[in-house]
Amino acid sequence: MTVTDPAADQLVAEAEDNLEAAIDATSDVAEVLAADEDAAPPAVVNDALAEFRERLHNDVGDWFVVHTYSGMENRVKANLENRISSLNMEDFIFQVVVPTEEVAEIKSGQRRMVRRTVLPGYVLVRMDLTDESWSAVRHTPSVTGFVGHSHQPVPLSLDEVENMLAPAVEAAVAATSETPGRPKKAAKIEFTDFVPGDSVMVVDGPFATLHATITELNVDAQRVKALVEIFGRETPVELSFTQIQKV
């Protein structure tokens, strides 16, 4: 590939060194979605994951990580899907995914499930890499480049893709297995000595092993907002008390 983009190279240079560690961290799936009695039967989850893995191995194309402006992941997905159609790239760019997970949020004493982005500022694209497909993705509004070598990006392994997308598969199974009208158990509110400015280690979830700095605390919801370095830049994320510990 002979395409060069110096501006993109500069934007993603630091991200290359952090890619492997951050993706490996996604092998720890999202926090418990509900009480044990509300969870999907293990056999159902395993069947769904087996079908997902089979489809993943049979799909054509390679998976690449695309760097976006923070908070623009879904807009990039929509814009790129429109460009695929308008540029007649359906035979080269096959799928655009924003990895997500479902987590429990407690608000006004009520527990509810909310969907959030696993890797803020990043989108996965399954494609055959050519000059034309590279250009179609790279010049999508709010895309700043490919993670890795900007003009010759290296695709993710299927294991890495599976680790990043499996939480969404499990969440979908859990959602379809819930008993309609059955209330969720409210989580126990626990005491915490975390305060804004604390440096913590993430011990569970997609960002396990990474360091974070707490910026905001919500004791009622048992969650914090924090800055985590992902792919070489500080990214705001939400974490539960059980996912972090002081360092």
Structural description of this entry:
This protein is α+β, with helices and mostly antiparallel strands. The chain folds into 2 domains: 6-177, Alpha-Beta Plaits, CATH 3.30.70.940; 199-246, SH3 type barrels (Roll), CATH 2.30.30.30. The protein is 32% helix and 28% strand. Strands 10-9-8-7-11 form a 5-stranded antiparallel β-sheet. A 4-stranded antiparallel β-sheet has the order 2-5-1-6. A two-stranded antiparallel sheet has the order 3-4. Helix 2 (42-58) packs antiparallel against helix 5 (158-177). The N and C termini lie far apart (45 Å). 32% of the residues are buried.
CATH fold node name of the largest domain: Alpha-Beta Plaits
- What characterizes the major β-sheet? 5 strands, antiparallel
Strands, total number: 11
- In CATH, the architecture of the largest domain is 2-Layer Sandwich
Radius of gyration: 19 Å
Strand line-up across the major sheet:
10-9-8-7-11
Q: Would you tell me the overall average pLDDT? A: 76
- Helix/strand-derived class? alpha+beta
Present the secondary structure layout.
Layout: H1 6-25, H2 42-58, E1 62-68, H3 73-86, E2 93-97, E3 100-107, E4 110-117, E5 122-127, H4 131-138, E6 143-146, H5 158-177, E7 199-202, E8 211-218, E9 223-230, E10 233-240, E11 244-246
Antiparallel strand pairs: 1-5, 1-6, 2-5, 3-4, 7-8, 7-11, 8-9, 9-10
List keywords for this structure.
32% helix, 247 residues, 2 domains, alpha+beta, 5-stranded antiparallel sheet, 4-stranded antiparallel sheet, SH3 type barrels, globular, Alpha-Beta Plaits
Task: Give a quick rundown of the structure.
The chain is of the alpha+beta class and 247 residues long. The chain is 32% helix and 28% strand.
